[in-house]
UniProtKB/TrEMBL annotation:
Species assigned in the record: Methanolobus chelungpuianus
Pfam families: CMD
UniProt-recorded name of the protein: 4-carboxymuconolactone decarboxylase
InterPro entries with a match to the protein in the record: AhpD-like (IPR029032), CMD-like (IPR003779)
GO molecular function term, any single one: peroxiredoxin activity
Domain Carboxymuconolactone decarboxylase-like as annotated: residue spans: 28-104
Length: 118
């Protein structure tokens, strides 16, 4: 699938959902790959990949998607995010998701931040 190759280049890996969709139906796989490509593409005047990852990190934290938040930290490291940017995103997550979600997700996220050297 041509779109899957583009997803690998844009996202850095092939998301499982694209692989599963392609196994179900080639057109569905192509459509989902196109969605990924559109979301993560660099566009002039658009958000950088780092900014996009900061946004999805905050959303993952605010919705208790701890495993996703920890994985996104690895991408944030790759894209040069600072510890302060990540902490700001965590505070936004606490603001939007509630302090209990922040309390629940923080131990694993802070542990991964330390491991990655943030």
């Amino acid at each position: 699938m041509t779109e899957e190759i583009e997803v690998n280049e844009v996202k850095g890996f092939q998301p499982r959902s694209v692989r599963y969709a392609g196994q179900m139906d080639e057109a569905f796989g192509e459509g989902l790959a196109g969605f990924y490509s559109a979301v993560w593409a660099d566009r002039e005047g658009g958000l950088s990949k780092k900014d996009k990852h900061l946004l999805v990190f905050a959303i993952a934290c605010s919705s208790l998607k701890t495993e996703s938040a920890v994985k996104i930290l690895q991408r944030l490291k790759k894209f040069g995010a600072t510890a302060e940017e990540i902490k700001d995103a965590m505070m936004i997550a606490a603001w939007t998701g509630g302090i209990q979600n922040f309390t629940d997700v923080s131990p694993q996220v802070l542990k991964e931040m330390e491991r990655l050297g943030f």
